[in-house]
Amino acid sequence: MVAYPNPEGLEIHFAQLEGNHDLGDLWEAARAAGVKPGTIRVWESRGKVERVPLDGDKPLYHLPTIEAAAQVKPGRPKAA
Q1: In the predicted model, is pLDDT for residue 68 greater than 70?
Q2: CA–CA dist 42, 35 (Å, integer)
Q3: Is 10's pLDDT higher than 80?
Q4: pTM of the prediction?
Q5: What are the distances in angstroms from CA 66 to CA 9, 20, 26, 49?
Q6: How confident is the model over 23-33, as pLDDT tens digits?
């Protein structure tokens, strides 16, 4: 199970048709999250984020989902 799943497929499909630029390649996803592209790959392999399942020659990511995943910092929570 992915920690930060993408929106439902139809929402992404319609957003793409309407010219919404919420989808980006690996480099755009890394830029949106403020991390290196390798970090996005690690997040994907560990189940934190997922690719958008669209036909195409390169993997695409839902940028708002990537940005939300980037807000959560790794590590243990501070003691109360």
Answers
A1: yes
A2: 11
A3: no
A4: 0.72
A5: 16, 16, 10, 7
A6: 889 999 999 99
User: Three-state secondary structure along 2-64?
Assistant: CCCCCCCHHHHHHHHHCCCCCEECHHHHHHHHCCCHHHHHHHHHCCCCCCECCCCCCCEEEHH
Residue 64: name the closest of 19, 29, 16, 13 by CA.
29
Rounded-to-integer distance, Cα 77 and Cα 65, Å: 22
Which residue type occupies 76?
Answer: R
For 58, other C-beta atoms within 10 Å of its C-beta total: 7
Give, in degrees to the nearest 5, the angle at Cα 43 between 78 and 35: 80
Cβ–Cβ under 8 Å, residues 49 and 61: yes
